[in-house]
Q: What sequence folds into this?
């Protein structure tokens, strides 16, 4: 089974802090994603990466950055945390972006990190 | 553009009731379709999938049929249990010129009462 592991289930930080959320997958997936989930808004894509050192902005990248130094690890960074970044953060991974044979493969999600910024 | 629309919740049902959660999509080409379930405090888990027209995905008593003619992928279960209380997401994935893209619905919250 695919395992996507997020480093923390719950995290409390203060306004202005630099926050790191870590995600590791064990299935050699090329693609990795960061979403945030807020009531009434569903999942919103922050950033994704389709290879080591590659990243692309999603729908709401402002205030965030990412790092993909190794294939299995994808980090989300809040450069200067603000209260409006309080949310549930979900990491996901999947097989490659550009091969038809993988187009029927799902994303696999971690358990999520519930982040509170005080 | 490509999108997924699912019925808004919340949905509240009594145990053993019949469940339908509607999902329709807009996509060019031939997407694969998925239902995910999110239990309280957890991430999303794949519930079922269908990869071509008329395919039926099924798991844990849930079913959904890929209807290309109506661009729909409605989730159904004949007899819900309290343990089915969760948020359900419809999603699609397809291969475009820029690669495989994922789109999610906004989620439908289901509460099953004893």
A:
């Amino acid at each position: 089974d695919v395992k996507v592991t997020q480093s923390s289930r719950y995290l409390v930080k203060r306004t202005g802090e630099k926050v790191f959320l870590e995600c590791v997958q064990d299935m050699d997936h090329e693609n990795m994603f960061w979403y945030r989930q807020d009531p009434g808004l569903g999942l919103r894509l922050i950033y994704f990466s389709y290879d080591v050192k590659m990243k692309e902005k999603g729908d709401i990248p402002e205030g965030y950055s990412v790092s993909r130094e190794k294939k299995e690890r994808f980090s989300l960074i809040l450069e200067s945390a603000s209260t409006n970044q309080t949310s549930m953060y979900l990491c996901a991974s999947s097989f490659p972006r550009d091969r038809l044979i993988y187009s029927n493969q799902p994303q696999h999600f971690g358990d999520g990190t519930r982040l509170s910024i005080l | 553009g490509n999108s997924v629309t699912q019925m808004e919740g919340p949905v509240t049902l009594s145990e053993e009731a019949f469940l339908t959660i509607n999902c329709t999509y807009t996509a060019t080409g031939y997407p694969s379709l998925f239902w995910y379930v999110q239990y309280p405090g957890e991430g999303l888990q794949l519930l079922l999938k269908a990869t071509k027209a008329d395919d039926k995905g099924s798991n844990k008593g849930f079913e959904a049929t890929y209807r290309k003619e109506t661009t729909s992928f409605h989730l159904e279960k004949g007899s819900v249990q309290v343990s089915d209380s969760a948020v359900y997401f419809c999603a699609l994935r397809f291969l475009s010129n820029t690669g495989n893209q994922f789109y999610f619905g906004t989620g439908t919250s289901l509460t099953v009462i004893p």
User: Anything to note?
Assistant: The interface with chain A takes residues 32, 34, 36, 41-46, 49, 51, 89, 91, 93-95, 99-100, 102, 104-107 of chain B (CB under 8 Å). DSSP finds no helices and twelve strands in chain B. The CA atoms of residues 61 and 101 of chain B lie 28 Å apart.
